[in-house]
User: What shape does this take?
Amino acid sequence: MPAPSKATFLSSSDAVAHLASYQCLDGLSVKDLMDSRVHGGLTYNDFLMLPGKIDFPASDVITDTRITRNVVLRTPFMSSPMDTVTETDMAISLALLGGIGVIHHNQSPESQAAMVRAVKRHENGFITDPVVFSPNHTVADVLDIKARLGFCGIPITETGYMGTKLVGIVTSRDVQFELPETLLSEVMTKSLVTAPQGVTLAEANQILRSSKKGKLPIVDDQGRLTSLLARSDLLKNQNYPLASKDPDSKQLYAAAAVGTRPSDKERLKLLVEAGLDIVVLDSSQGNSIFQIDMIQWIKQTFPKLEVIAGNVVTREQAASLIAAGADALRVGMGSGSICITQEVMAVGRPQATAVFAVAEFASKFGIPVIADGGISNVGHIVKALSLGANAVMMGGLLAGTTEAPGEYFYHDGKRVKSYRGMGSLEAMEQGRPGVSGQANGKPGSTKHTPNLSSKPHENAATSRYFSESSAVKVAQGVSGDVQDKGSVKAFVPYLHVGVQHSLQDIGVRSVSELQAGVKEGRVRFEVRTPSAQLEGGVHGLHSYTKRLYA
Assistant: This one.
């Protein structure tokens, strides 16, 4: 019997060099992947990225990203301006963790402005506009500030205004056991540690550390109060190194949404007075004359205010808003978990295809893109970034957290919070006289400034969907509930580390390197068939527990 012939193999040492014999890299380029004529419109679940080479730890991955022309965040996370997602707590927490929360406008202008003001006052370098009282104010005034803004270390000047002589300071200990009607002149601390005007932030921080005081007033050569520094901000700087702060004022960035109606101009004036940095023009279909006019008015009236326009899903929509002066674009139509626009209106676009098309066009003009909707996990975040998004806007993924508005309740034995689309009938009824605005019979949002929020006001949901004049309201969203996710202070760091590990698997060290690799064809993709999607999930088990983070 003849001996079998011995197979001839290439030398193992030539394996890497032999890759050059292939016409292209393994997998698909992003242009091949996103060819709608071949694959149709794609969602995030319809494709994967192929792994690269790891030669660095995940902790080295940089997630810094530009979300508007002039604002850079340390993480690509934004919360949606929905009344069951973003109010003061969410906006502050996300900003401390390196993202930004967009405060919803389905409330009175005064209430929304109060939330913006609370974000701006939460963490500062030099506080140039602190709350100031006079000796004739009372303990009740201090307690009111504590209830509304969360602090009670307040400087006391002769007149109760900045720029006048500092005469004392009131802290929580000073008012703890005092009657509400007691004058501050009777309880304020008069022995003060101060720093001279012109002191650097580093020098002032050192004085604050050594003095062991809670607040450090900054005074001019005549003893007049010019600014304030808080010890709590030093602690926050240590605990939240990624915090999203204005590089000049050191204040947290604040973002809020408005509509495109005439009354929104007055609303925006209040928000800007409160310290707003970024305005999001909130519309389900952004390519309208209303939004174009609004962008142009904002740029003329508040030239330093960053404007995020949208929503858009096509190049043609994007072009109109870029030409009008938008500083960033929000991409998505009907892809959110509670949105039924595509089903009801027969209009929209699969989210992955929309993000790629708009980002490819907007990048030519230096306009960042925010992927809004369809984000359910870390993988979706990374896929959105790979297609050109500079950040992702999350609603359902953050709903149900401690910081989301509303109260927890139990549904089928699970602890949940209400979550509703801004196109839902419940959201459209919010603010009407005699209507509670509750979703599924549970509270919507009364956590901050409830008296202001409860006043009748122009409805943000109807203006967002251009239906405020319609006798019959056509819902483009639903109401429901989502399971308790705990605090974003644990959940968002999980998302951040998850993104870092994903980029490590891909073999890139930053978001910018990821996008450059995609553009140059070095980062490759693969289409997922339905069977591949099934294989890529949990399968073949009788039962299992899915814990995402500890």
